[in-house]
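Ex. 9. Protein: Protein unc-93 homolog B1.
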Amino acid sequence: MEAEPPLYPVAGAAGPQGDEDRLGVPDGPEAPLDELVGAYPNYNEEEEERRYYRRKRLGVLKNVLAASAGGTLTYGVYLGLLQMQLILHYDETYREVKYGNMGLPDIDSKMLMGINVTPIAALLYTPVLIRFFGTKWMMFLAVGIYALFVSTNYWERYYTLVPSAVALGMAIVPLWASMGNYITRMAQKYYEYSHYKEQDEQGPHRRPPRGSHAPYLLVFQAIFYSFFHLSFACAQLPMIYFLNHYLYDLNHTLYNVQSCGTNSQGILSGFNKTVLRTLPRSRNLIVVESVLMAVAFLAMLLVLGFCGAAYRPTEEIDLRSVGWGNIFQLPFKHVRDFRLRHLVPFFIYSGFEVLFACTGLALGYGVCSVGLERLAYLLVAYSLGASAASVLGLLGLWLPRPVPLVAGAGLHLLLTLSLFFWAPAPRVLQHSWILYVAAALWGVGSALNKTGLSALLGILYEDKERQDFIFTIYHWWQALAIFAVYLGSSLPMKAKLAVLLVTLVAAAASYLWMEQKLRRGVVPRQPRIPRPQHKVRGYRYLEEDNSDESDVESERGGGGGGGGGRGDGVEEEALPAGPRVGPEPACPYEQALERDRSEER
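Predicted structure tokens for Protein unc-93 homolog B1:
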């Protein structure tokens, strides 16, 4: 069987007629000019276009994987270091021998306050920072602040730990808002690169059909959270391979503990003040912190080198050009949208449940009954359950949209009711398998919650002009919930479970009410995004066919940036495409040539 000839012949290869090609045209210096500079006769435009967009799609997948891996490494390092630091600083002997009367518990309390209190103000500056730096660079800067927090642990003093904790608290909401925005934009780009022929037929300024990117968004959110939930397991590696060798067993640490689970009060009441059998050497601590610092630096390089831009440069200019005052106000104006108001209880519950898994379930039920040396394995069970169950978010491809979110809420409801009536006995290992199963199942509910909420926001708000505002609001409410958990850490376990239960029921009911409103056709009120006001009147801004025009502006058909259109707060529909009336305007270059000719005449 004869082999197929290559798509493009090898340059310089002698054909069947030596220095002449098959058409009899001489090759080399004697070749006609048209043969050298003209179009290649065997050029396959359709094949080249297909290859080009395939490379673009692979680039989008690379961006998603790099962002997911960078977020996983960042949070794995942060949580692992914070956990190891708090355990070491809790031990009385370690504090007295290493730091004397420096007041390490006071420094730790102020550090936790900086991490939990600072995000309250994040709604004021997060959209401005994301628009100013851009989505990718905001991710990079936030990951760099996490690395800064890791680096300050080489020299643990008030003036290093507390300022870095405040800076980290400021970076939490911008990091998560830019991450959510980035994954949503990648799904939209993947749709554009997969359906490029339809885009060409519809025209460059026609927006894709609503919800067209939803399947890709569900897949990308499942990938992102499958990676991210592994960060809880990665955070336990310093504990498993380093700190566990220095810990006392449960008979010593739990000697004075009287009640656990639903009967407990605060966090580990009666826990022994000495948890370390021997103190780790300073050299070993420096080695562990250096490994964590190297991983944090690797996360920065992943985001910097492998994450592409979320927007084209002209789109970035448009996003900034709506005015900084408008950028500051728009997150507050989105409160008029009933969809966001109905989702606020779910945002709050999302913050409650993840912190309850790490403190209430892991400490109040786990460490209180089976000892500190098994804390790492409980959190690994939670992490693996959440990571594996993130794939269940793909059920949204076949099932109705509310199913994953409601299923996760139902699972958490059953677990919360079960925990409400369970008080494990201290220093008893027979029920340890129940704790591992409960941790894994709680991780399944967390995965359905996180993937469902992020995908839902990306589907409901697919205008690229709004996405950073929406994800900022989501993660700001989540940060407020985490702050509330921090304030109520001394409450009885029954009170914590009651608050969790009430919030969960309110969130599920409010979400189902929102879906019912959408099915009835209630139109949400959305604030109008102002038209970009470009200060630079360069070449591209003089064109009638403005390459920097956003999707929403192009649909308005140039109806003006102020009061034109259908009014403030109503979703705008795409205008029907029709033939352009009147002659096509000349570009500025042709206008300049015409002026030169007229002057010569």
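Check your answer against this statement. The two ends are 69 Å apart (CA to CA).
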